[in-house]
Amino acid sequence: MAKFEGYDDLHTELLLLEGAISVEDASAARMDSNGLINGREVTPSGLYSLGGLIGIPKGYLNKCENILRAENANFWLTRKTTAMSAIVVDDKIIQFMPDVFINVTTSDLLAQIKDELVDKDGIDMKVERSYVSPGDIHFSVVFPDTMNDNNGDPIFGGFSFRNFPLSPRAPEVGDLCWRQVCSNGMIREDTMRTWLVNNTVPLSAVVNKIGDTHTNVSSFITDFINLKNEQVVNPARTLISTCKRLGIRSSYVSKLLAKLQTEPHDTMFDITNIVTSLANEVSPRMGWGIQKQSSHILEFATCDNCNQIVG
Length: 311
Description:
- It is a single chain.
- By secondary structure, the protein is an alpha+beta fold.
- The protein folds into three domains: about 5-15 and about 105-210, no CATH class; about 30-100, no CATH class; about 230-300, no CATH class.
- Helix content is about 40%, strand content about 20%.
- It contains eleven helices and ten strands.
- It has helices spanning about 5-20, 45-55, 60-65, 65-75, 105-120, 205-215, 220-225, 235-245, 250-260, 270-275, 285-295; strands at about 5, 20-25, 40, 85-90, 90-100, 125-130, 135-150, 155-165, 170-180, 185-190.
- The strands form two sheets. It has a six-stranded mixed beta sheet with strand order 1-6-7-8-9-10.
- It is globular, with a radius of gyration of 23 Å.
């Protein structure tokens, strides 16, 4: 029987989070002189989002004392004609949202992945990385049977999923190329904006996408390994150019340049691994972004004569 290693812990964590979040209608919300709305404390992030919805500078309400804050908020709340919702965690309002937002229950999706692809189709899976918070959930899962030994440097294929439960932003699912030795890799993501049906994404569509990834991800691994064929003549210049093209902050480039002293740097495979290593040193959200951006290295053009990056 196929295994889904790490499933139980991740599924339990998702259920606990989802059980702690409630959504309330806030269309008729008013703030009292103590700064409470619907009798609940509003966190700084909640005030920030409220300002954006009622059309005042987002940080302004956080700077006001309670009475002035209530006067300003209520003046504009009475003039707001569209519906909105309040997101409540631990009896505090942590965010206000337009009433129309994308609703995908991540725990249900994970359970369906296990039911359809692991239990029925016999695909082994392993959770390699996960991050769970009220506003941002993402996890990376590998398929053990896709391993390419890569001369003792194993690389796996898999998928990554990211959901934004408190946002109108569409979830993302992507192909994953995971290098075991450094516990990170590259993600080729696909936004699900075009998949939306009544402000949700059909779970079957996500499961089908992941099944297709299992079938086709070997080409992603091959493309990554083939970067070994692209020689690097000037590692520092190549690394700086790569970071610039990927939009990596200049403040991180010096850290990556220092790694040229200790890490292999003869090929674009080496340079790519230096770049993706940054994902382990920054916040989970930024790490996801770095892994997504790094996949564009595979699209860089190289000179036919010297194999150097051009453009």
